[in-house]
Every structure is written in structure tokens, then in C-alpha cells.
Write a structure and sequence with these properties.
Order of helices and strands: HHHEEHHH
Structural class: mainly alpha
Number of strands: 2
Mean pLDDT: 82
Oligomer: single chain
Number of helices: 6
Strand order of the largest sheet: 1-2
Helix content: 55-70%
Length: 134
């Protein structure tokens, strides 16, 4: 996987960690395509009972990290994901594995496959990608 340069436009994803609340906010943004603090607050409040200003701070920090893009042209700030969910997950997994093991081994991949219940379609896709990697 090619490394990205660390610029304001494209953050080095491996250097970006997400806390539990940041991950919850991003998951809502990715899944529901929600783009205002109010919308995220409405989604999170029943589960987390957090203050509106807490969500606002988290979203501002995610924008500062380069994960969200913040549009300040209107009175209400609008946000959109600058990084896709799969891209972020892959980068974070690679970062953790590299920090702990130094590289990805077949045992790590096998462990992940055993831990999660992949569908037949997903397993077929994995087989195809493995065959392409040979």
C-alpha cells in the first residue's frame, strides 16, 4: 500500500486515531450521510446523553484532524467525510498491526477471518483478492 504524504488535503491516516466518541460520530456520518452537528446530536443523544456542545467540539476536532470537511459559509456549519469508512478502518488496522507486530502475518489474517462471521460472498471476495495477490 502506498503511503500518503501528510498534508492538509490528505492526512496521514495511520497517524490519526479515533476515540470512542469520535468513532461513533464518524459512523453516523458515514451510515446516514448526516452533515450537521444538530443531526448527529439527535442521533447520539438517546444512546449517549451528551451535550450538544460536546458533539460540536468532537466534530470540530475531527475537521482539524482532516477526517471531516467543515463548510463554514452558512450560519449552520455543514460537515462531510473526507475519508471513507473502509479507508479509515484499513489504515487504523494497518497502523495497529505495524506497531505491534511490525508487519501483517498470515496468522493475523486467519485470526480475523475466524473471529468474524463472514458471509459466503465475502469469503468468495477474499479468495479472489488472495488469488490476485499471488
Amino acid at each position: 500500500m502506498a503511503r500518503r504524504s501528510n498534508t492538509k488535503e490528505t492526512p496521514a491516516l495511520a497517524d490519526i486515531g479515533l476515540g470512542e466518541l469520535e468513532a461513533a460520530v464518524m459512523k453516523i456520518i458515514w451510515e446516514k450521510n448526516i452533515n450537521t452537528v444538530k443531526d448527529v446530536f439527535i442521533e447520539l443523544y438517546p444512546k449517549k446523553r451528551l451535550a450538544y456542545t460536546t458533539i460540536m467540539t468532537v466534530m470540530r476536532r475531527l475537521a482539524e484532524k482532516g477526517v471531516l470537511e467543515q463548510d463554514r459559509t452558512a450560519k449552520t456549519y455543514y460537515y462531510k467525510a473526507k475519508v471513507g469508512q473502509e479507508e479509515m478502518a484499513e489504515s487504523m488496522i494497518n497502523s495497529v498491526v505495524n506497531k505491534v507486530l511490525g508487519n501483517v502475518s498470515a496468522d493475523v489474517v486467519i485470526g480475523i477471518i475466524k473471529k468474524y462471521n463472514f458471509t459466503l460472498d465475502e469469503l468468495t471476495m477474499l479468495e479472489q483478492k488472495l488469488a490476485g495477490a499471488k
